[in-house]
Structure formats: C-alpha cells, structure tokens
C-alpha cells in the first residue's frame, strides 16, 4: 500500500504535486490546508484523511479534527500538525508512525521503532527549504518504508 503524505499547502495546490501522489492508495494531509478545494482535488486521486493546522482555525477547514488516528493496512498512524503538541506515548499507544507538519522541514526519523515523519511543505516555499511531500509504503512484512519527494519547482 502506498500512502501520500502532504502538509502545509497554505491554499496552494501546486500542479507538480499531483503526479507524485498519482499512485497513492490513500492520502494524508497533516494540516495548514487553507483552501478546502485542495482536499476536493486530492480525493480525486485517492481517499483522503485530513486534520486542521494552525491556519485552519476559521472557515471550512476549522471543522476538521485537530488530531486523528488512521489505520491503513494494519498500521496505526497518529496525525497531528505540530509535533511539539504530542501529549502521549506513541509506543504505549501502539502507533507505527507519528505524522506531523508545521515546521515546513522534511524529516524522517525512527525512535523506539516508531516512524516520525514530517513531509515538509508542499505549498509556498518558506526560507530556503525545499518544497516536498512524502510517501510511505506498507509492505506485507517488515518496517514501514518512507521517503521524501521533492517537487520539481
């Protein structure tokens, strides 16, 4: 199973993002969506689970949950926008991965057997950071595979 992971679109759906998500079985948006039309476009590719970020406190995206637990192919993913707000023990909760955004910095880390993934920002460029998304592959056996995908912008 292939999972597309995006964050911090900030009302900008770059056309370069869509081919990187094209073979996704599910897409996770980790907040700071801005324009709900972005979710409407993503759902044309695959089912979408989204949470709100700090810019989504007003308007249609404010109705999205602040955090979410998603089970895909037997793996539990915990979604929250700002990793600094994590207030639980992921290992005790049995999560395979913690997915966050907010910083616009792409990160893949493993801590105590749990994947910590920030896909970076797929929206407006911030500072000199790359414009990115991520992909997680769930294999029948073995750990999750994660990679950062840089948009050609």
Strand content: 25-35%
Approximate shape: globular
Strand order of the largest sheet: 3-2-1-9-10
Distance between the termini: 27 Å
Rounded to the nearest angstrom, the radius of gyration is 14 Å
Q: What structural class is derived from the secondary structure elements?
A: mainly beta
How many DSSP E strands?
Answer: 10
CATH level 1 name: Alpha Beta
Give the biggest beta sheet.
Answer: 5 strands, mixed
User: What's the helix count?
Assistant: 3
CATH superfamily: Metallo-dependent phosphatases
Uncertain segments:
none
Based on the coordinates given, report the CATH architecture. 4-Layer Sandwich
Tally of separate domains: 1
In the CATH scheme, what's the topology name? Purple Acid Phosphatase, chain A, domain 2
User: H/E series, N to C?
Assistant: EHEHEEEHEEEEE
Average predicted local confidence, pLDDT: 97
């Amino acid at each position: 199973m292939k999972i597309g992971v995006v964050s911090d679109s900030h009302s900008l759906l770059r056309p370069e993002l869509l081919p990187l998500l094209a073979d996704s079985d599910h897409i996770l948006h980790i907040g700071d969506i801005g324009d709900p039309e972005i979710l409407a476009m993503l759902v044309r590719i695959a089912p979408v689970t989204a949470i709100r970020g700090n810019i989504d406190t007003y308007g249609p995206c404010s109705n999205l949950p602040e955090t979410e637990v998603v089970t895909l192919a037997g793996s539990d993913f915990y979604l929250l926008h700002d990793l600094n707000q994590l207030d639980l023990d992921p290992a005790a909760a049995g999560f395979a991965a913690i997915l966050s955004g907010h910083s616009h910095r792409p990160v893949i880390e493993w801590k105590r057997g749990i994947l910590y993934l920030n896909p970076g920002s797929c929206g407006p460029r911030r500072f000199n950071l790359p414009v990115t998304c991520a992909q997680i592959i769930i294999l029948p056996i073995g750990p999750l595979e994660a990679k950062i995908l840089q948009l050609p912008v």
